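Weekly structure sync - notes
Attendees: PM, LS, DV (DV joined late)
Agenda: review two folding runs queued last week.

Item 1: First target. Sequence and structure tokens pasted below for the record.
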Amino acid sequence: MADHKSALKRIRQSAVRRERNRYYGRTMRHAVRDFRALTDAGEAEAKLPELSKLLDKMATKGRIHKNKAANLKSSLAHFAASLKQA
């Protein structure tokens, strides 16, 4: 176990940040899963901007890579468009 005050503080900070990152990751995954479960095109079109904003925020904060956010947004937009066509 660490003896230095700074090391103890770093351990506490790491634990808090890990929990926060896990919460946001779980929230993002659930939002994507719920979006992909939609069957109504109008509802999907309404929720897409909110989900895109969430993904952008996750990428900006460094919780996910910016390319992952872009890939998710693209695939979700394609999904919404396919609902509109059907």
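Item 2: Second target, run right after the first with the same settings.
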Amino acid sequence: MNTKLQLVRRAKKGDAEAFAELYQNIYQNLYRYALYMLGNPADAEDAVSDTVTDAWVTIGKLRSEEAFEGWVFRILSNKCRRKRKEYVNKPLEWNEEIGDMAGADDLADHYHLRRVFGELEDEERMIIGMHVFGGYTSKEISEITGINANTVRSRESRALKKMAKKLEGQEVSK
């Protein structure tokens, strides 16, 4: 059985099968994150597909094998951010898949939660997204991103408090 690090090393050397196995292991987490960020299944699939393509093309530049998942999430986060800029004048689309995933009871809750989530700083969004949509623990997020586990927990806590205050209608400064 190959470990993640072995798969990343092989992928960095051009092994497509190793990269495919890595991708298969994180696809659901990437898709959930993109779907929540973008609110549109087709756009989420496109963002994940573009992310995986870019990751494959540039994996040789990855400095640390341990950082693979965080690196891929950063690529995806950037793609989602760029795509969201295209949504400025586009009406928000919601569907049952997003509702089921998010667990909120009505459309307004989904919209407000997504808006507030989108207002977080990139690192906060990544930490919250990896925890909520990827199911990663703070220790795993720490290992993936290279951020100290205590720092991950404190940043997640601050981000959640920031979101809660904004959802209550209070503006919080960054």
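Discussion on item 2: The chain is about 75% helix and 0% strand.
Action: LS to circulate a short write-up before next sync.
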